[in-house]
């Protein structure tokens, strides 16, 4: 089977530089990917992704490349640089911007990566990358969890709007989803984090892909839209203003933070109990009947 090769840009990132070096040494020898796969005890598919800069360098590959190319440790020396980039190059720009932001506003039709538990992230990544090797999935999970330390930074505030469908879709089963919902509730208690839920009752709305709005330390505003396979950064003022207006509409359609917490607790309780009519509880432990929950949600939707 022939694998289509995409040439890396060595100026784009350390991972791309690593891939370009693999490609250069292979082409100097006139080897095909299949030949290098045999010599380096790897697979043509993995090597193709490494060459294009799309794949994290697997364990043991650098040693094999230095052996077959007789490069005296060249690839082992490049490995620490390439390993700093645990996310695909196409996400490097937006991740760097998020790390520099002082305010992150996000709407997501799924649970945002900054809120995901390890098990939930693994199931989501596996669903999105059904043919990836296990090591690649685990590397992506590790990188995603590592970014969550940023939530503890006092110099950045986060505003998450989550679609109700994301909370009700039992990714990984009831136990995995129950832990995920509890994790969202825990993060929502941080003083620099606000979590709202966009309920089913809100009806049609403007966003069916993820929308981010970033405020930088110097006041610059950046918007970012992401689908399941691609993302676009917008830094022109008009584009950002337009997307801020759309986000503000989502915020108005969403439940209040308090009602959102109540709804999440209600869904969590449904996952952990076989009694669907059991009272829900709010954060101070006060029992709240299901009818009261529905009234609270209705008032949040029709407030003002």
From TrEMBL:
Domain HTH cro/C1-type residue range list: 21-76
Lineage summary: Bacteria, Bacillati, Actinomycetota, Actinomycetes, Kitasatosporales
Organism superkingdom: Bacteria
Gene3D superfamilies: lambda repressor-like DNA-binding domains
Entry protein name: Helix-turn-helix transcriptional regulator
């Amino acid at each position: 089977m022939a694998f289509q090769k995409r040439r890396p840009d060595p100026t784009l990132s350390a991972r791309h530089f690593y891939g370009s070096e693999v490609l250069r040494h292979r082409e100097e020898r006139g080897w095909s990917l299949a030949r290098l796969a045999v010599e380096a005890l790897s697979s043509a598919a993995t090597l193709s992704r490494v060459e294009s800069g799309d794949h994290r360098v697997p364990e043991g590959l650098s040693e094999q490349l230095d052996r077959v190319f007789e490069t005296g440790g060249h690839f082992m020396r490049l490995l620490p640089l390439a390993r700093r980039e645990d996310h695909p190059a196409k996400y490097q720009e937006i991740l760097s911007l998020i790390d520099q932001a002082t305010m992150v506003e996000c709407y997501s039709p799924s649970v945002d990566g900054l809120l995901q538990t390890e098990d939930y992230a693994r199931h989501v990544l596996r669903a999105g990358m059904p043919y990836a090797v296990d090591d690649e999935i685990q590397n992506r999970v590790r990188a995603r969890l590592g970014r969550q330390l940023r939530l503890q930074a006092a110099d950045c505030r986060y505003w998450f709007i989550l679609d109700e469908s994301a909370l009700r879709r039992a990714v990984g089963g009831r136990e995995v989803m129950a832990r995920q919902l509890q994790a969202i509730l825990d993060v929502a208690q941080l003083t620099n984090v606000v979590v709202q839920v966009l309920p089913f009752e809100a009806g049609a709305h403007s966003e069916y892909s993820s929308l981010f709005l970033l405020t930088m330390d110097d006041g610059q505003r950046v918007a970012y839209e992401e689908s399941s396979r691609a993302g676009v950064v917008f830094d022109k003022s008009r584009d950002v203003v337009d997307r801020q207006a759309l986000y503000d509409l989502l915020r108005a359609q969403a439940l209040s933070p308090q009602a959102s917490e109540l709804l999440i607790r209600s869904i969590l309780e449904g996952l952990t109990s076989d009694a669907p009519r059991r009272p829900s509880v709010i954060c101070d432990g006060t029992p709240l009947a299901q009818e009261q929950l529905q009234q609270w949600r209705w008032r949040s939707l029709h407030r003002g």
